[in-house]
Every structure is written in structure tokens, then in C-alpha cells.
Amino acid sequence: MSKILSMRELVPTIFEAVVEAPEIARKAKAGEFLVVMPDEKGERVPLTIADFDREKGTITIVFMAIGTSTYKLAAMKAGQSYYAFVGPLGHASEIKNHGTVVLVAGGVGTAPIYPIAREMKKAGNKVICIQGARTKDLLFWQDKIATVCDEHIITTDDGTFARKGLVTEPLKEICEREKVAIVYAIGPVPMMKFCSLTTKPFGVKTIVSLNSIMIDATGMCGGCRVNVGGETKFTCVDGPEFDGHQVDWNLLTSRQKIYLAEEKCSLQKYVEEAKK
Ligand SMILES: Cc1cc2nc3c(=O)[nH]c(=O)nc-3n(C[C@H](O)[C@H](O)[C@H](O)COP(=O)(O)OP(=O)(O)OC[C@H]3O[C@@H](n4cnc5c(N)ncnc54)[C@H](O)[C@@H]3O)c2cc1C
Q1: Same domain assignment for residues 159 and 214
Q2: How many domains does the chain have?
Q3: Got the DSSP string for 214-241?
């Protein structure tokens, strides 16, 4: 049982929880993920490590409430404990001195980008962060991101804050402007796909963190399978980070939609129960 030390809504529908988990914090590395279960009957929800503090023994998660399980997580308060909080899982990001690293964060993807940016900076890289959101009210952790990068570009799709447009526009300009060693892009699937398409003509290695539907997160069930470079890979044990130029984006997109009807029905039931 892992206790929630603090819980807050960062922006509408996006929540941050700081969790007491000294064993995980001791081993955690940027890029890894956890499986969180709100209660005994809940789903196993995969969430990327958004921050860790080895001295305090805490792990931070940031999640968007979009369905039954994330609604359940959002309803939990500081002082309560998760039924399960398992990790760290998956492979960590490759932290070393690459040279110039561009980190592109889309929406809730800002959270997993933060520890990668921090560790890349510590490793001596020039770190450029591009942080994008649909609108000003959905931007969070700008101050935190600013502390771990040399250049920080913010975009909003509707132009309500900073630069109007998509993250791919400054990404292309940076690739034209200077030699970029590696790009990390984390966010919604279309955003990661288009970041990969943007960097491909420049030959810049681009790593994406895939959020395929995952069930057991141990490599047993095959639910999170993706196709990368013509080979079947499991996001849980082979990823979650993959070469964005090799990912079969169409397959990932279609597999993410396979349970839409069940998810809708489950959420409706959950909301009706909660009203009673
Ligand atoms: C390795 C990994 C790391 C992730 N990290 C984060 C994170 O840091 N923050 C965050 O907000 N989200 C993250 N996700 C996505 C998150 O797990 C899903 O949003 C969550 O499971 C949705 O569950 P739900 O019951 O609330 O929604 P549902 O109504 O069940 O589903 C809503 C949508 O979420 C996706 N989804 C549903 N179930 C799963 C599942 N078991 N695994 C993955 N995706 C699912 C599908 O696209 C689905 O259409 C991550 C996913 C993976 C695989």
C-alpha cells in the first residue's frame, strides 16, 4: 500500500499525486513507468514516473482523468493509499552526453519529459524544451521545465499563450538552425507521430514513449504489442521508449480504439454510481 502524500488538480482534468514509495524512488530512472491500482477491483493503470526524490522517498505521478480508472485515481485524496503501486517498470531513457537534445512535450506528456530533461541537463547536454498545449489553461509545470533547460519554447494551438501553433513548427526550425543529436517527443499519439515525421528528413534520432493499451505490464499478455521496424514489440518490457521513425503509427492508433465501446459504457456506469 503506497500512501498519497499530496494530491492536486494542476489544470482541468490533469492531476498530480506525490506518493510515499521509498523502494521505488531509490531505483527510479527517467523514462520508466509504474502500474497503479486505485483499489482491489481496479484496473492496472500504467503511468510514467513524472518525478522522484530519493532523499524524501517519493514518486510523483501526473495523469489525465479520461476514463473509469483515472477518474477513480482522481477521486482519491492525500492520506489514502493505492491498493498497488508497482515499479519501476520498462527501460529507462538513455541518459548521456549526446550534445544538443530537444525534448518535446505535448499536454500531459510534459510530466514524463521533466525528469528526462533534468537528467539530460545533469549529463552536460544543451537541453531545448518545446512545451505545447491546446490552450493556456492546460499548461502546467512551465516553471519546473524552465529550471532544467537552456531554451524553453511554449506553444498553444489557439495562441492564448506564447507562440501560436503546434510543437512541430519550432521543432523544424531548431533542426534547420543547429545540429541536434536526439529528440524525445512525449504526448498524444498524433503529436509523437508528427514530431517523428518532422525530424525524419533531418536524420535526427527521435525517441517516443508509447502509451499503447497495457494490461499486465509484465510481457505475458501481449496486449501492448506494437510494431517497430517490422518487428512485434511489447511496450511494457521492450519499451516504453522506441524509435519514432520505426513505429507503425496506424497500427498503434487502431489498437488504441479497440475497447472504445466498453470504455464508454464503463465510464457511464461509474458516473451514474458516483451520483447515487
Ligand atoms: C507506459 C505507459 C505510460 C503512461 N503514462 C501516462 C501518464 O504518465 N499520464 C497519463 O495521463 N496517462 C498515461 N498513460 C495512459 C494511461 O495509462 C491511460 O490513460 C489510462 O490507462 C486510461 O484508463 P481509464 O480507465 O481511465 O480510461 P479508459 O476509458 O479505459 O480509456 C481511455 C483511453 O485510454 C487509453 N487506455 C485505456 N486503458 C489503457 C491501459 N490499460 N493502458 C494504456 N492506455 C489505456 C485508451 O486509448 C483509451 O481509449 C500511459 C500509458 C502507458 C502504456
Answers
A1: no
A2: 3
A3: -SSSSSSS-TTEEEETTEEEEHHHH-SE
Q: Is the CB of 110 under 6 A from ligand 1?
A: no
Distance (angstroms) between ligand 1 centre and the Cα of 46 equals: 6
| Ligand 1 mean position, distance from CA 145 (Å) | 23
Do 204 and 102 share a structural domain?
yes
Owning domain of residue 237: 210-276
Overall pTM surpassing 0.85 (yes/no) = yes
* Cell output for 116: 528526462
Phi, psi of 90 (to 5 degrees): 80, 180
Q: Which three cell numbers stand for residue 193?
A: 507521430
Of 80, 69, 79, 68, whose CA–CA distance to 47 is shortest?
Answer: 69
Q: Which three cell numbers stand for residue 257?
A: 480504439
pLDDT tens per residue across span 125-166: 999 999 999 999 999 999 999 999 999 999 999 999 999 999
H or E element, residue 112: helix 110-122
